[in-house]
Amino acid sequence: MAAREPSRYLARSFSRAILPSARPQSVCFRRNASDDAASKSPADELESSSLATAVPENVVKSFDPIARAKSRKGQLPRSRYQFRSPKYDRGPLHPHQPPPPSDPSSRLFVPGPFSLPRTEQTWESTVAPDILTLCYVHNPPGFKPPPKAPRLREWDDSSPYHKNRQLRGPRGGDVLRLLRKPIRFNNIPVVERVTIHSYVKQAATDNSSWLHVAGMAMQAISNVRVDTFKSKTSVSTWGIAPGRDSVAVKAELRGENMQHFLGKLIDVVMPRIKEWDGIKGTSGDSSGNITFGLEPENVALFPEIEVNYDMYPPKMIPGCHVTLHTSARTDKDARLLLSAMGIPFHGKLVD
Amino acid sequence: MSLTTPLRRSAVTTTTIRTPTTFICSQCRHATLLRRPKRPYTFTQLVTLSDGSTYTQRTTSPLPVYRSTRDTRNSLLWNPSSHKLMNVEEDEAGRLAAFRAKFGRSWDANTPTEEEVKKKEDDVKVHTEAAAAQAAGEQTLEKNNEAAEVEKARLMAEQAKEDQEEEDNLLDLISSFGQEEEAGNKK
């Protein structure tokens, strides 16, 4: 059998050679100027000096770039020219423009990601396929969804003043909700960003140490430098006036930081919260963002705060609000995603 | 202070070509400092969950290995069907155990333990089943029993037939849904 194999292949290739090809190549009456040039070998074209010279044996033997680099004591001096991003942005008309923040030479460049977080891997391997399966809706071939009424209603032209008037808002309220698109492989809900926010009420009445401690605690649990915010409104009972004093701290997490934060929040912190049976089912802004609060004693459960708990004055550890911004368009989808990632919900679920 | 922040932001966005529409047109001619973003130092930490599974994470905590005693693997909320976690006693400091070792458990001897409760439930189940079987045996004679079986078989066959018809109708409806409209369009 094995001996017959090559003959079979030969027969196949032979028949292919005999068959007339689609494009006749054999006979060509046209002549081009490049025909003569192609007949020459490329080596003839080049100068003889560069290629034909034989390298002496001792040079070949001494050429060892790896050993040479290893034997070097210090680093080589950097090249003479190095681009440095301008320190100041002098406006769009200035000739010396800073590079975009994604450029490593930019001053605003943030390197990373440096790890592949466990939460992200779980989402990729388990959560996304599960959601895709759960949200699959089968439509038989030839199915057309029944036409829906337009979201903004027309005026009924009963009055001449209806002419050129803007369209009416939806029935039962002025808010146009987000449209829920069917979930396909390319719009599976993901957690896009997480916002941790803390309003420190003693920061307005007492000294600023409350805010400093809150900022350090937020930074420790989130791996992100926090922003502070001043009060915008005036509430005399809380002792705040617009723009007078910083009262709130916020950390916005994206990408790798967010995934690590979610990982420790779900796996380590949430199970240790006493007397807690999940996020309230009524939370959410009905467009796929879910918020919940953590009490000061729950914030103290984070491993980063626990490891040197003595650093923080125990009274000053802040509580916070955590908002999970998902790419889902409805709270129902967001809850599906978050519960698949391990966040429990309790009570009546409002979608 | 509140004025300078939007100006800075707009200056930053000009580095990318897209310029947002600003309705408050206050011209800004000063150069804005491009601050280097500050990031806290992070360590790589090995987290060991209570069931022994491990993973690494980046964290500001300098601890190289974090062992958790309480996490999703051994909390009731995440394992609602776990029988072991259901009856877990709130005895984190070991005080109840120490009390029992010292004074015995005569103070709660009357409350049934877990095994006793289970045994009792099983007993009740067995009793009810036996009673039901007995009642059935008494009521139906053999003759009646046969007749009932025949009747039952007939009813089941009818039921199956009806189900099949219904399914066929449904399939027809589904497959003809789009076609009717198309036919209408052609006319």
Automatic annotation (TrEMBL), chain A:
Chain positions covered by the region annotation Disordered: 30-54, 66-113, 145-169
Ranges annotated as biased composition (Basic and acidic residues): 151-160
Top-level lineage group: Eukaryota
GO cellular component: ribonucleoprotein complex; ribosome
GO process terms (BP): translation
Pfam family, one: Ribosomal_L5_C
GO molecular function: structural constituent of ribosome
Signal peptide (UniProt feature, chain positions): none
Keyword Ribonucleoprotein applies: yes
InterPro entries assigned: Ribosomal_uL5, Ribosomal_uL5_C, Ribosomal_uL5_dom_sf
Annotated Large ribosomal subunit protein uL5 C-terminal domain residues: 247-345
Keywords: Ribonucleoprotein, Ribosomal protein
Entry's family note: Belongs to the universal ribosomal protein uL5 family.
Name this protein carries in UniProt: Large ribosomal subunit protein uL5m
Protein source organism: Aspergillus ruber (strain CBS 135680)
From TrEMBL, chain B:
GO molecular function, one term: structural constituent of ribosome
GO biological process: mitochondrial translation
A Pfam short name: bL31_N
Region (Disordered) location: 155-187
Ribosomal protein bL31m N-terminal domain boundaries: 36-81
GO cellular component terms attached to this protein's record: mitochondrial large ribosomal subunit
Protein name, entry field: Ribosomal protein bL31m N-terminal domain-containing protein
